[in-house]
Input
Amino acid sequence: MARVLLGITGGIAAYKACELARLLVKAGHDVVPVPTPRAESFVSRETFEALARHRAPAELYPHLEEADLLVIAPLSANTLAKLAVGAADNVLTQLALAYRGPTLVAPAMNTRMWEHPAARANVKTLRERGVQIVGPEHGDLAEGEVGTGRMSEPAAVFERAVELLAHSSCAALHGRRVLVTAGGTREPIDSVRFIANRSSGRMGVAIAAEAQRRGAAVALIGANLAVPPPSGVELVEVESAAELARETESRADADVIVMAAAVADYRPAASLEHKRAKGVAIWQLELEPTDDILCRLGERRRKGQVVVGFAANEGEGGLAAAREKRTAKRTTLMVFNDISRDDVGFDSTHNELVIIGDGGERPVGRRTKEECAVAILDEVTALLGSR
Ligand code: CTP
Output
């Protein structure tokens, strides 16, 4: 059983917090409702107290800061702004400022408010602090409009809350910034053709999702992902190796960088602006090497920063090459995966790895990429803890 602080702010979606309180209580958690004064004009304090079987605090008691999770659902535009600047004008905002554990918020507001640069900036601030965000969804809004701004359904918020609680050991990454690259780059030949590779992005996406579950603020640089990105992470979509390099380097101060993307080693020396018409003559392409991003990150790796590279190669010789690659690229960890088999690796749901680090090597037998992500982040978390 965990202690969950359930903040409720003013808005028509406050009624959804009733169902969320009920689900959390049913799952055996100790729920403390913390409605703002505005929330009480939508649903009475007594309703929340009855559902949570707990009194709502009238002032900030120190023991409240000991909770396992703070959930604010719905989160209004007003309280979002207060959280971003650290205002403390009611019990909920005081609590949010004093609390140091994992926080999950479910925004609910009018589409134009949600899209306003001020709200965007506030969301970004929260995300950078490691606050987990669920929704809002697209759909009917209170004023008869349709757009993005609806609070996620209570079941979806509950599910995220349960995930965060299950990994509360993993709140170890709370306050850490994790940058993950995933997918395969495309190098243009002309306006319609490109050189690509078979990477689906599944491994990197699984790592981003796992880092997020452990409470990190995650930025995912996705190169042509064939799988959906996890919700709640900052997604930056790129196509080519050059774009991936630019976006990665501008975020290279993250605490952890995982280079899971399959970055092209070569690109056409010149790409044609228009589509080349078919002809009978041989078309010879000249390829030039791309910059090795991982190498540059390794060179500039600061003390305490964890940089993880991937080495896709074949068999025992491949493992030896991966060890050398770790030294050459000065990465903290190098994850070797054997691409000679077709039941693991590229474009597969499973992987089989050897995680190579200073402290030795950890073989990870064939398992799902989600399970592999857990193993990789266990190593990363241990390294951060020891620094
Ligand atoms: N990488 C990179 N920039 C590149 C190419 C690769 O950052 N231009 C990263 C990949 O994201 C991956 C690692 O470097 O983490 C892979 O290293 P690489 O030298 O490309 O090795 P492999 O592709 O595994 O093997 P090979 O040596 O045969 O190219």
